[in-house]
Inverse folding.
C-alpha cells in the first residue's frame, strides 16, 4: 500500500528504468477522479491486452475511451515497438471490479506462483481503479498475435520501475485475469514468467540493458502463399468452425493465415533451440558418468 507517485515522479521512474516514453497532451491531468471516486492508496500494477491493432488507434481508444466507458482507460499504452504512450494519470478506467482476497494477497505479497483465483469480477468486485496502476498492451489477445521481445521488455521495465519506486517486489504485478474472474488478459504470455523477469530486473540497478535478441530471419516471421492456397485453407478453416463461407469472411480469414504461419514457425524454431540445448546437457551429463 502506498501513496500514488506524482505524475512527474511516475515519468522519472519509467525513464530511470530505461523505458522509451511518449507523452501525449494533457496526460498529467487526464483522470477519472472528477467522477467523485478517489485514486489511492495504490497496491500494485495490472497488465492488460487491448484487443486492438495499430498503435495510433489503440492509443486514441485508451485515451478517449468509448461508449459506456470514458477514458482514460489506463496510465500507459505499451505499443508493439516497446514505446510507452502516457495517456492519463490519477484514477483510470482499467481494472474495474476484482477480488478482495487477491487485493490482500498482492498488498502483502503473500502468495506463491500465482495469487488466489478470483471469485468475483468487474460488476460485483472491489474497486480496482482506485488501487492499481494500469498498462494496456497493444495485442489482439487471441493467443496468436505475437508479443515482440521489445514489447515484453517494456512491460518488464515499466512494472519494475513502479515497483522499485514504491519498494514493492514482483508480486505486486498481476494480470487482469488474476484480478477479475471475467477477464482473460493478458493472453499470449504468462504472468508468473513476467514476474520472474521483473524480479530479476529488480535485483539489478535500474536501467540495466535488455538482453540481446537475434533478429528473426524472414522465413521465421513471414510467408508468401499464393492466393489459391490461401483460398483453400480459408475455406477449410471456415468449414471447420461452421461459419458462413461468404466472400468477406474468406478474405478476413486469409489475412490471418500468414500471421498464424509465422507464429507456428517461430514456435517450432524456439522448440528446436530448446531441444539442442537439452542434447548438450545430456552429453555433458554422460561425460560426467
Amino acid at each position: 500500500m502506498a501513496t500514488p507517485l506524482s505524475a512527474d515522479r511516475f515519468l522519472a521512474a519509467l525513464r530511470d528504468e530505461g523505458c522509451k516514453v511518449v507523452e501525449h497532451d494533457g496526460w498529467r491531468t487526464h483522470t477519472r477522479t472528477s467522477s467523485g471516486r478517489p485514486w489511492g492508496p495504490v497496491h500494485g500494477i495490472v497488465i492488460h491486452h487491448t484487443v486492438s491493432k495499430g498503435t495510433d488507434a489503440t492509443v486514441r481508444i485508451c485515451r478517449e475511451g468509448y461508449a459506456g466507458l470514458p477514458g482514460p482507460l489506463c496510465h500507459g499504452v505499451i505499443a508493439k515497438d516497446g514505446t510507452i504512450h502516457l495517456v492519463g494519470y490519477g484514477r483510470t478506467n482499467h481494472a474495474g471490479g476484482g477480488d478482495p482476497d487477491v487485493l490482500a494477497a498482492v498488498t502483502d505479497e503473500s502468495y506463491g506462483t500465482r495469487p488466489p483465483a478470483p471469485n468475483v469480477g468487474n460488476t460485483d468486485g472491489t474497486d480496482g481503479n482506485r488501487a492499481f496502476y494500469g498498462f494496456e498492451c497493444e495485442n489482439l489477445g487471441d493467443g496468436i498475435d505475437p508479443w515482440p521481445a521489445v514489447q515484453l521488455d517494456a512491460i518488464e521495465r515499466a512494472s519494475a520501475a513502479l515497483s522499485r519506486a514504491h519498494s514493492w517486489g514482483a508480486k505486486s504485478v498481476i494480470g487482469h485475469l488474476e484480478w477479475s474472474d471475467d477477464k482473460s488478459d493478458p493472453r499470449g504470455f504468462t504472468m508468473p514468467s513476467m514476474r520472474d523477469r521483473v524480479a530479476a530486473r529488480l535485483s539489478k540497478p535500474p536501467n540495466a540493458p535488455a538482453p540481446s535478441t537475434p533478429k528473426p530471419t524472414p522465413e521465421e516471421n513471414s510467408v508468401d502463399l499464393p492466393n489459391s492456397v490461401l483460398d483453400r485453407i480459408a475455406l477449410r478453416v471456415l468449414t471447420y468452425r461452421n461459419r458462413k463461407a461468404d466472400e468477406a469472411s474468406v478474405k478476413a480469414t486469409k489475412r490471418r493465415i500468414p500471421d498464424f504461419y509465422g507464429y507456428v514457425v517461430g514456435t517450432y524454431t524456439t522448440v528446436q533451440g530448446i531441444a539442442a540445448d537439452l542434447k548438450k546437457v545430456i552429453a555433458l551429463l554422460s561425460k560426467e558418468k
